[in-house]
Amino acid sequence: MTSPRRTFAIISHPDAGKTTLTEKLLVAGGAIHLAGEVKARGQNRRARSDWMKIEQQRGISVTSSVMTFERDGITFNLLDTPGHEDFSEDTYRTLTAVDSAVMVIDAAKGIEPQTRKLFEVCRLRSVPIITFVNKVDREGRPVFELLDEIADMLALDVCPMSWPIGMGGEFEGVMELATGKVSRPEGDSRTFQGKIDTGVTLSDKITEEIELAGIGYPTFDAEAYRNGDLTPVYFGSALKDFGVTDLIDALADYAPPPRPQPAEPAPVSPDEPDVTGFIFKVQANMDPNHRDRIAFMRLCSGTFKRGMKLTPSGSGKPIAVHSPILFFAQNREIADEAFPGDIIGIPNHGTLRVGDTLAEKPGVRFTGLPNFAPEILRRVILKDPTKTKQLRKALDDMAEEGVTQVFYPEIGSNWIIGVVGQLQLEVLLSRLDAEYKVAAGLEHAPFDTARWVSADEAADLKAFTDINRAAMAKDRDGNPVFLAKTAWEVGYVADRYPKVKFAATRER
Ligand code: G4P
């Protein structure tokens, strides 16, 4: 019997405390022993890679990773997502590989823009959410105001599971509402330990708050939570290590185990014996000494064993997976076996692509991994014209990783790249230079947005592309893309060609 799995991600706005919480979760799970280690190791690793200097300079985390820890017989797979809004596409894809999410909110700030965007992606896929209101050791907003904001802005039922007894200087602990047990801070000012204390006398104000909360909010309904209609809300402080184990217990008790995954011809249940999975992320050059790339696969069914042959839907040629990697607290370890819900890193030289299905028996295809229309388009200017081949390889590689998208116009030789955020442009140039020795610049493209075009009848598509040839390009996979000057133009053109479909996302 294998231990149950909980595969989840943390979503938050930058600075809400995701890194700190991750660290504390790993410590609680025994994966690391020193607080601060996640950051320290991260920085060590970063220092080795040139292009990641951007991360250091900006103090943001661009690379995602997978961390596994165990507690009370349950294996938790935590998929880290880059917090910076520029890397939303990467984050979105990671959310396709989880069964649930923890939403971290700063008690002083409430729902912030990035929290909201990420929440919408979770909603799209009915990913259930546990809310952690962080930083109660500091002055925060009134609890009712925070709860109502979550309910109103996210159109979600909220159910407080605990209640902070004061915040900031008046913080006295957190009460578990179901039992009335109070965890009181104990320890030095750096870290509190929750000490269960049933003999607390609460102030009238707090007693009244808790009474009102009991009347004003729905009781916890596990089914509604799992459907993504209700979020249980916990209060705590990641920094002071307060409420973190309650959060793990909540994940253990309520978060769903691996769920059936949408696929063609039929959804795949985790109980099916044949091994299947999909690639949600590809990362190149994690170790600059080996020009490897790692494809991250979410295992959806079957028991994976090292050396197993799997067929990727992209190439159709079976590959033997001899050195799969399980990510255990950021140490790469060779895995012998993995189970549904686990993430496996598969080293490869470019055969595996984001969106690929891998299966023991071909014929299955997972669906719903979106490719987003880029919001920024730029023309790539090569400084040394003899490097065309290297540039093409670099752009293809990065498109494959999902860092940038590349479009090859039908007319002219100026390749166009698309990104969802400004910072990716800097990453692109820096990597071109450091990894591919290609000096390049970027200039404004005469286009502002891209749409994948298709039509039921090939003739309708051809009629459209023939007339609009100057605005047509192909993506890396050869799919036709219409490059428009403005979003308005997309609407205008779409009206004139009702038989052509214009898509802002392309499913892989
Ligand atoms: P992020 O990954 O979501 O961006 O947030 P991160 O954990 O890096 O936390 C952002 C800041 O908030 C950090 O302070 C961190 O120490 C602080 N923080 C996190 N959790 C809590 C909490 O529960 N209470 C309080 N009071 N602060 C918290 P910083 O000064 O920006 O960084 P650092 O120099 O302390 O690392």
Task: Write up what this structure looks like.
Belongs to the TRAFAC class translation factor GTPase superfamily. Classic translation factor GTPase family. PrfC subfamily. Its main location: cytoplasm. Pfam families: EF-G_D2 (PF22042), GTP_EFTU (PF00009), RF3_C (PF16658). It is found in: Cytoplasm. Keywords: Cytoplasm, GTP-binding, Nucleotide-binding, Protein biosynthesis. The protein has 508 residues and is α+β, with helices and mostly antiparallel strands. It folds into three domains: 5-67 and 77-254, P-loop containing nucleotide triphosphate hydrolases (Rossmann fold); 263-366, P-loop containing nucleotide triphosphate hydrolases (Rossmann fold, 3-Layer(aba) Sandwich), CATH 3.40.50; 370-507, Alpha-Beta Plaits. Helices cover 27% and strands 31% of the residues. The protein has 13 helices and 33 strands. The chain has an eight-stranded antiparallel beta sheet with strand order 28-25-27-26-30-31-29-32. Strands 2-3-1-4-5-11-6 form a seven-stranded mixed beta sheet, sandwiched between helices. It has a six-stranded antiparallel beta sheet with strand order 17-16-22-13-14-21. Strand 7 (162-165) and strand 8 form a beta hairpin. Bound molecules: guanosine-5',3'-tetraphosphate (G4P). Guanosine-5',3'-tetraphosphate binds next to helix 1.
Overview features:
7-stranded mixed beta sheet; 8-stranded antiparallel beta sheet; single chain; 31% strand; Rossmann fold; Alpha-Beta Plaits; binds guanosine-5',3'-tetraphosphate; 508 residues; 3 domains
